[in-house]
């Protein structure tokens, strides 16, 4: 066989092989084929396994829809060793974790096309059992298959027995609110906080004297409970109320309320009530369902109505969660500008959704929205005000609890590595006896001993003893989007690896054709 034919065959084989592999779960690993194990079987502690159906044959499915073939298993042995936390698979195809451990977020199918072959196959990626923050952080942690942050409960008496009359003219669930009613007003709302960026957002709103509404999540994204006195969140929420902003609920751990049971829905709302009550002495009557998902027929609208909540959506979705980049945030600005250009403040009002969990929203988009809406004649207000709802109707008071009134009993925020009391940074530097918590320069102490709120300050190299160090921010927002409804994880380096591998496959094919033409 001629050399050029061998080269063509080799390039085709490499291209087809790479295009049919989905390496999203592989990072510096060696792949070894293994015979399938039973679904109930657990992997050996020294290895990690991922179940991948064979892309080259169709799975047989019984009449009741059960999978009758398990395909091929890939054993992934990490070159640098395997973390002992990842001992057991979990999820819909693998079952629950051992008691006391969390099931990390995965276990959902992903669909991958095979380049040059008309095959689309489904890859089930398992969750793994463990106890690290990465395993237990909600909402990624699978609540039906292990322990999660969402299973934690705030301290204090429950709010379940507090009366919940439907007072005022604003509709309660199962009806949903999608717009304001007072012409000339614009209600800016921010979901998923408080986060490391929320302090900067409050500074900005103070500067513009702009009231807003914060839909608070209790324990999402591994940030800890909002009423934990060792964290900065309670003081930020107190500042919101003192500044005239409205507090609303966004559930305890950001679960999709259309996909959980009625009992789980009640827990999501009641736990968040207790945590907010622990801070304010009362809890909200307004809420927004995570992912804006409260589908009729799921029981969600009725449950929220029974709990006495106004289900609050929006009529401008900024898509800021998709555009959290200096190069993309202009897309969100354009969405906002186009919406406002369709109406006049003489007759129109707006209800806007954004997220204080994203840096570009806080440091870029929000000021643009404030300036643009003000220039056009709109007045920023809270959701309650844009609906003509008296402020007494925004909250339900718990007479048994006064909130965090006695500040002297709250321990100083941040880990106490030193016996000497830390001082708040006055010049933006941090470390040793100076903390960023409470400073105007940001919450996080970066590797260069400077305070700030950017990823550089709060991410790798962040000094926990001198400030807050952030966990990963959510990639998805709360606008209902079919492209994001099944999975909530965002872009990662692994995604770019898949693109690189498939690009290499195409390159191999092109090179083969060039060789053939040249010879």
Automatic annotation (TrEMBL):
Domain NodB homology, residue spans: 184-381
Annotated signal peptide: 1-19
Superkingdom: Eukaryota
Listed CDD domains: CE4_ClCDA_like (cd10951), ChtBD1_1 (cd11618)
Keyword check for Iron: no
Alphabetical keyword list: Carbohydrate metabolism, Chitin-binding, Cobalt, Hydrolase, Metal-binding, Signal, Virulence
InterPro entries, alphabetized: Endochitinase-like_sf, Glyco_hydro/deAcase_b/a-brl, NODB_dom
Keyword Metal-binding: yes
PROSITE patterns per the UniProt record, alphabetical: NODB, PROKAR_LIPOPROTEIN
GO annotation, biological process: carbohydrate metabolic process
Molecular-function annotations in GO: chitin binding; hydrolase activity, acting on carbon-nitrogen (but not peptide) bonds; metal ion binding
Pfam (any one): Polysacc_deac_1
Required cofactor(s): Co(2+)
PANTHER family reported in the protein's UniProt record: CHITIN DEACETYLASE (PTHR46471)
Protein name: Chitin deacetylase
Lineage, uppermost ranks: Eukaryota, Fungi, Dikarya, Ascomycota, Pezizomycotina
